[in-house]
Batch of 3 targets.
Target 1
Amino acid sequence: MTILIRGGTVVNADRVFRADVLCDGDKIIAVAENLAAPAGATVIDAGGQYVMPGGIDTHTHMNLPFMGTVTQDDFYTGTAAGLAGGTTTIMDFVIPAPQQNLIEAYHQWRGWAQKAAADYTFHVAITWWDDSVHRDMGTLVREHGVNSFKHFMAYKNAIMADDETLVKSFRRSLELGAIPTVHAENGELVYQLQQDLLKQGLTGPSSHPLSRPPAVEAEAANRAIAIANVLNTPVYIVHVSCAESLEAITRARAHGQRVYGEALAGHLVIDDSVYQSPDLEFAAGHVMSPPFRSKQHQTALWQGLQGGNLHTTATDHCTFCAAQKAAGKDDFTKIPNGCGGVEDRMSVVWDAGVNAGLLTPSEFVKVTSTNAAQIFNMYPRKGVIAAGADADVVVWDPEGSRTISARTQHARGGFNVFEGRTVRGIPSATVAAGKVVFQNGTLMAVEGAGRHIDRPAFKAASAR
Ligand SMILES: NC(=O)NCCC(=O)O
Ligand SMILES: [Zn+2]
Ligand SMILES: [Zn+2]
């Protein structure tokens, strides 16, 4: 398929310029003014609109078995929803059960992802440690295109990585040229605070944020950063939600440490008042970890994105329906943690960031696509509008608007944390791997069209 996107303004992370964009097969082949349409080409008129690299959501959980249940969105429905919102690549997580062989888990997730409508790639979680994990990390990096490993510092008695695992895995990641990433919350503290709250009879969702205050997150962020500093590894902190974690990142970066931070669209615009709702289904629908915080923390996160101490935006898309959330109706610790957003991130960040004057269009591209591609070694295949890059392109209508609702979303779960929010700035067309997959409100996602994106190590793997 040949596609000419004509008359738009290309927005890359480094500059904004008038150009047409010609795609052939799954690649962009030319970016220049006044390109002629080849015979048979599909022409998209982008007059007055922006033409940007497809969004990369660095943090999703499709088809995730978690807390005794499985997320509502699988790799097809979740990636299709992303395409409707301008996200053309997701970075999902292989999360082996404790003692599960890493390679077996990797193939399990690859099997589930066969359905994906958009490109995908995997971080692999290190949830336990022995010699086979050390060995299999090498195999994943050398043979399976994995260059990032995830560590849950929370979820005690489940997938939590202790300090021994963190140290050994960070060291192994360095050896392999992979980047360690962390969910930074002190799992022991969370567990003890949860038990205290339950003993006091505080069993509802309003206890969820009380069991995970900012200091719990900051302790883990500081610990991960300290371990990375001693071992001389980079580290990427997922879903940074509070000022204290951001301060830890900022301080480390000021001392020359290579620390990266991710902000979630939800944490940027939703505050913790949601947990006080008398509608317990609504409050439980917002239970995710780390929890939504006060407005002061939202302001700090925006400053982090503006100042370059936070680098990516993601969603942690992890959808559970009301019936699943009801597993915790008598005990908030049993509410499956997770919220959606893959369909909404680009518009939410544009509306609350660019329209509010907090981000320029180029900064928007940086934090929704380019930085992710660079940090996780997919650049310049992804993250830029340039000849040779993948034909993942969003035609962005800065004046188009929509009101977000679970009633009209493509994602499953029947709930949306952005419910009722009207956003200005929406995709008028999404091109993924050289195919028009969304145009003027119509989704044309194809099950199975997504591809696994191999991400090479950051330096040649040793012969070990
Ligand atoms: N974030 C969340 O609450 N659920 C998904 C798993 C995780 O990322 O911690
Ligand atoms: Zn997490
Ligand atoms: Zn997550």
Target 2
Amino acid sequence: MDIVTAQEMYERDQVAIESTGIDGKMLMESAGRSAADDLEPRIKREDQIIVLIGAGNNGGDGFVIARTLLNRGYKVEAWQVVPDEKISGDAEAHRNIFENSGFELKKFSRMEEFLPSLYQAAVIIDAMLGIGVEGRLRSPLAEIVEKANEHEALRLAIDLPTGLPAGEGVHDFDAFNADYTTIIEAPKVSVFLQHTTPYYGEWSVVEIGLPVKKLPEVKRYLWSVKDVKQTMPKRVSHSHKGKHGKGVMAGGSYYMPGSIAMAARAALRSGTGLLTIATAESIIPSVTSYVQEATFSGLAEKEGMITGQATPELSKYDGAAIGMGLGRHEEAGGLVLHMLQECKGPLLIDADGLYALKSMLNALKNRSLPTVLTPHPGEFAYLTGVPIQEILQSPFRLSREFASAYGVHLVLKGPYTIITAPDGEQRVDMTGNAGLAKGGSGDVLSGVLFGMMLQSENILNALSNGCVIHGSTADFLIQEEHSKTDLLASDLVEGLSRTFRTFSAPSKA
Ligand SMILES: NC(=O)C1=CN([C@@H]2O[C@H](COP(=O)(O)OP(=O)(O)OC[C@H]3O[C@@H](n4cnc5c(N)ncnc54)[C@H](O)[C@@H]3O)[C@@H](O)[C@H]2O)[C@@H](O)CC1
Ligand SMILES: [K+]
């Protein structure tokens, strides 16, 4: 499913109108009716409903919703919260249809008149502003939103909560605090930002009949289980282990053996054909007991940490991963640089590897083969020098800029993970739950991603699939055997079997 900015949404509407002959009034009718259908299961016959209608096309949707619900017998008061002269075009046409249908339209002039209606409502439908919002809310919308947020009622928003920016990078706003939002046609970027997502409440997307074949391409996409099923590499029955990637994973230290162990086991569970773990010699016995299928390359160590002189042989591998449990010591830099320069296949850098990478961004830029970085926002802030707050407010733009500047694939982890290719194409994965907010789940993700990268020509698909597989595993596990509290990273590794069984297409002979 495409994710759009306000500008991209306007372009889509425009293309629909110009290329098919459908007109704005038809789209508004369709948007309003689809929204009413979507809201109906959330409201009851006896509920007093108030529909708040603004000046633009979002208000136009509001006229259609109010009319549709009244025609269906619901108890609805429709309130136009802006002066008559502000309503024009398609919205005015739908106001006429509303009034010509015999329904009463109330008009806001003074707060004292309006408040009793607001306060008797059990359900508030917000059709005041959508993607056309500019700047902070002006009067009287600002006061109406404030009162609506204070009033105990079910708050439903149309397209986006009034006042909320559709895009990223805006932090100065007041907005309707919705329990649920019916999004028109495509989720907007602000659905996926930490500071704006709570205003949407739960949400779903309704389709209003835009011509899919004609719509301009948007390189921002919500990657779902359906996409995973369509793009997962298929294992055929005559497959050979050498065909599924031969990888080397470097990392681990005496005090952190679990990271590399879980990453390695996750990579194997994700289909890696042959895996070598290059790690501090002293921890090989403990790691091998957890990952019996791997082979080992013992690296020189000092005080339990891999030293900078350690240079695993890379030429016989299809790809490499580095960083899990490596430790943040200066000497680790030598190993990361070695990997950057000598790895002749795709390379994944995670965790402490990212920390070391900061001082060798030029070498990163010079690498021409696919490189994948998997930072969480803190690590990304460290790598870029951009404050973490700013990263959280503009993750799409900052990811795109970094991926393009350094020619890397970036997996910016979070409740919504954003995966960016060097050409700027982006995918969002929204699977997973708070059970993942624990040490080790990032290591498991790296293992899954590495396994997927080794088996697919298309790195962006491999990473998108890996993220959804990892998050869906956490989702399955908390529905069935675990809770968000007790879920451990090692449970995820074992849970992968269930996810792969569910997601894999049946193998062909
Ligand atoms: N053809 C289309 O464009 C369609 C649009 N649709 C709906 O139309 C919406 C977009 O319509 P518009 O572009 O008219 O935009 P909006 O309806 O979001 O609002 C624009 C109006 O809000 C006022 N406004 C902007 N910022 C304000 C602020 N800070 N305080 C107070 N008032 C402010 C502007 O003066 C303008 O009159 C979408 O979100 C969607 O709900 C749907 O009906 C489907 C078709
Ligand atoms: K709205």
Target 3
Amino acid sequence: MSKSPRKSAENPRVILDARDVVVEYPSKGFRRPPFRALKSVSLDIRPGETVGLVGESGSGKTTFGRAILGLAPVASGSIKYDNQELVGMAKADRRRLAGEIQVVFQDPYTSLNPAMAIAEILTEPLIAQGTSNAQASVEVARLLDQVGLPSDSGERLPREFSGGQRQRVAIARALALKPRLIVCDEPVSALDLSTQARVLDLLVEIQERTGVAYLFVSHDLAVVRHISHRVAVMYHGEIVEYGDCAPITENPEHPYTRRLLMAAPVPDPAAQRKRRLERQLLVEAGALSA
Ligand SMILES: Nc1ncnc2c1ncn2[C@@H]1O[C@H](COP(=O)(O)OP(=O)(O)OP(=O)(O)O)[C@@H](O)[C@H]1O
């Protein structure tokens, strides 16, 4: 894992442009108002860039990723992908875009069909988009190589792989249709620390090779800091801090971001002492509860 935050991606053109997005889930009780999970969220992503979306459980991160994928009830606002409005887009048009916007989920144990061999899992989206069987086999070999899995992996079932290897399969499947944007929803949080680092490095390497952009959703600021060019901090359905990775993760302005930063593990004892002191100062200033 590289230690410093990543430098900003250079291409300023925007691939995803979300403006004032409001998502409301229906409430269960009779005549109860809907629950507003996103309250006017605006965020953009440039080609080849990683934007980290960080926040505590329930803050709305997954909901935002789902809104991009057309899986959350957007009440108002706009989400443009490559200048095309995704909100309210007809299903047929959405299907056409399916290859360009892909997703990698958190749990590599449930996101792969256990009854399908890896080659089938990787071939399925290719065949659905009209790729011939012969070409699909060539692509499977290329994808396995791209994610660092042995070339004979295609014949095996998901249960024969470790969590990290399964997540590599999930990444390969997401890459099959050469997407320009991947929503990565907590893609490493189910993995142990050293596997996390290897999967993060793989994502970076793929991005450098292909120019794919990531929305990287995580509750872990340390992980987000490692992979992101820019960071958005989400709190109770709103973005409270948003900008280049280094200033936000090194010197956050919002008390909530400081709290997240303090929750991130720091192995260096001197840094831990500094963090304890900073935490104490924040408690004294009333920005944090003891
Ligand atoms: N389908 C749904 N129906 C009703 N409420 C929902 C639904 N999905 C999410 N919520 C609520 O919306 C809020 C945001 O949830 P979301 O899953 O987006 O948060 P998150 O930040 O991704 O949390 P986590 O890290 O735990 O996944 C939560 O209060 C959640 O209970």
